[in-house]
TrEMBL record:
Transmembrane segments: none annotated. It comes from Pseudoduganella flava. This is RNA polymerase, sigma subunit, ECF family. Belongs to the sigma-70 factor family. ECF subfamily. One of its GO terms (biological process) is DNA-templated transcription initiation. InterPro entries: RNA_pol_sigma-70-like, RNA_pol_sigma-70_dom, RNA_pol_sigma70_r2, RNA_pol_sigma70_r4_t2, RNA_pol_sigma_r2, RNA_pol_sigma_r3/r4-like, WH-like_DNA-bd_sf. Keywords: DNA-binding, Sigma factor, Transcription, Transcription regulation. Residues 109-162 form the RNA polymerase sigma factor 70 region 4 type domain.
């Protein structure tokens, strides 16, 4: 990794090839129910490692840094997977599966989506990623290709705009 950061492309490719089997084993142990998804997640983790290599602190253990990135990718995948599964409930079983509180939560989510639709795309995305999906400001900034300060401003202004619009609806 260090040689790769210094510009040695062959060493860097060797590092990625060497770390891939470790990531595969790490993810297989945690994704036993979804073995077909492991390889895709390995590739996502390797890509994230590549994109975030500039954040590696050489005084810290490399394995901790690599596994932290991989763990975040796994968490993101599990969140996406949980959201997708929520939409795959057979309609004939809906009333048996959802208690009234679940119905209220779904209605609240629809209302939230409608309220967020009133915002600009940047404000909506910044709020969704940081406040709803649990992403860090840094992750959100990278995903939206804006600065961290811009993410903070977008969240602040978006929440302020939402509060004003919701007050006017009363």
């Amino acid at each position: 990794m260090l040689e790769g950061m210094a510009g040695n492309q062959a060493a860097y490719q060797g590092f990625l090839r060497a770390v891939a089997p470790h990531l595969r084993a790490f993810l297989r142990r945690r994704m036993g129910r979804w073995p077909d998804e492991v390889e895709d997640l390995v590739q996502e983790a390797l890509l994230a490692i590549h994109h975030q290599r500039h954040t590696y602190d050489v005084s810290a253990p490399l394995t901790s840094w690599v596994y932290a990135i991989t763990r975040y990718k796994l968490i993101d995948w599990l969140r996406r997977h949980a959201r997708q599964d929520a939409f795959n409930v057979p309609l004939d079983e809906e009333h048996e599966l959802f208690a009234p509180s679940d119905m209220e939560a779904a209605e609240a989510r629809r209302e939230l989506d409608n309220a967020l639709a009133l915002l600009s795309e940047q404000q909506r995305s910044a709020i969704m990623h940081t406040k709803l999906d649990g992403w860090s400001v840094r992750e959100t900034a990278a995903a939206l290709s804006i600065s961290e300060a811009s993410v903070k401003v977008a969240v602040h202004r978006g929440l302020k705009a939402l509060a004003g619009k919701l007050r006017n609806l009363r």
